[in-house]
Specification:
heterodimer, A: about 250 residues, mainly alpha, 12 helices, about 80% helix, B: about 290 residues, two-stranded antiparallel sheet, 15 helices
Chain lengths: ~250, ~290
Amino acid sequence: MSWRSGLVWSTIGAVLAGLYLPLVPPLFFSLMPETPAEPAPTLRWYLEMWRNPLLTGAVVTSVEAAVMVALVTPLLALLAAISIRELKMPRLILGLMLLPLLVPGVSTGLAAAFFFKQIGIAPSLGTIVVVQILWALPFALLVVLTAMSTFDPVLTEAAHMSGAGRWRAFRDIELPLIWPGASGAATFSFILSFNETTRTALVQGPLNTVQTYIWSTYKQIGLSPTLYALMTLLILLTVSLSAIAVALRRQ
Amino acid sequence: MRLQLLGRRALLLLPVGFVTLLLLLPLGFMVVVSFWKRSLLKLVPAFELSHYVDFLTGPRLTVLGRSFLIAIEATMICLVIAYPIAYYLARHARPSAARLVLLLFTIPFLVNYVIRAFSWTYLLGRTGAINNSLIKIGVVSGPVDWLLYSDFAVLVGMISSYMPFMIFPLWISIAGIDHRLGEASAMLGARPLTTFLHVTLPLSMPGVCAAIIFAFVGCFGESAVPIILGGVGYQLIGNEITSTLDVLNYPLAAAMSSIVTAAMLALLAIWYVAFDLRSFLGKILAWRLQ
């Protein structure tokens, strides 16, 4: 390794260190006892937070929403990828699919809230799922497109020549090959849904997700050790889910 | 057979329908609401320009200007950090190493930015980790005040939120450039810097634009970072909109939000006209470009 590439790698390492730095402090604060007299570190906040019904309710909502987003988004992304390939106007379809990325979160959430109110749909899990799918869809589409780019269309032609219909060729030849992409998109969607705040907060009504719970608690009473414990769990969950997704893709 | 074809078409158009019905239509409706009247707690359909007049003549206009400025600063700093990294990963790193590094950049992006912003308030605070270590190694004698609740803190929050993801479009577009073009330029006697400025950089522009738009939109609409890291009274357009909502002035919030969205869509339109959207995806969409 030359001194030049050593320099580049240490710069990249420093930038990465800067990005990972904020993932550390919540862990420390979550282990702090209430008063210095108590023994440190303590795990009591990790136990205490489950006694809060508001929080446990939020966890349930978060998981329900994330599972639905993780199921629906890859499907939509897959359909969108196929439509980009097969329908006319691929540019327009791609542009439309990437649009949610280019509208600020506040605007997406606000517009959805007005719209749902006007057509008489009360805030619910469904409205939360809708705005989260909008947020996850562009990312899921990019993941699926990447997976599809490695697929050789010659294989589909071979299937056709062997007498397979369109659906059969897709199901038996292409789908298994792009499956890792679809499952990657599902994991990605799950994580994005679980970490979404701005859009969700505007359409959730009486419900709370874990993230909006953290946000509203911060605004009302500020940060507490329990909140730090919750954040630590969320960071660990996100990091380990990402690791699992990578391990699955490697196989 | 024809029915089957129709069903197939309908299925393929499902995602388009989803985004049109649940994003485009609501955005359009939001523009309509921005002209409505507010009477007590209800909204009455009307055609009032007063909310736009309020916004464009009041102090909120400076908030809009400040948001633009901060978002541009943050985006430029992001680009200066992300481009060299993406360039190195695409050109000089082994593919397996590049993939690993790209992954490492993704993970902090996925962790909720509100949580990361909370951490920064600790790290940047007067008694925080950064001030303590600066004092310890003797760079400063007392704690530095401007680290937290300042433009600097907001920039740190924004850059760490959006820079990681900028690397992707940059990396895709640089990796998609034909190596032989650079070699040809070198053979014709161009120095590496000349080759970079006249060959590589122009060819990576679709990725640069994608990255810029992504970061700019995020920074411009940011509502949590200015609240957490900017401190009391620090207003950007994102948290200005949410605080207008808190006082139930829905039409004004809709008007501000419409202006923000219009600005973003104008950016998108420029991008759409200037580049083929597919080109930033480079190799990913190679099969569609043939």
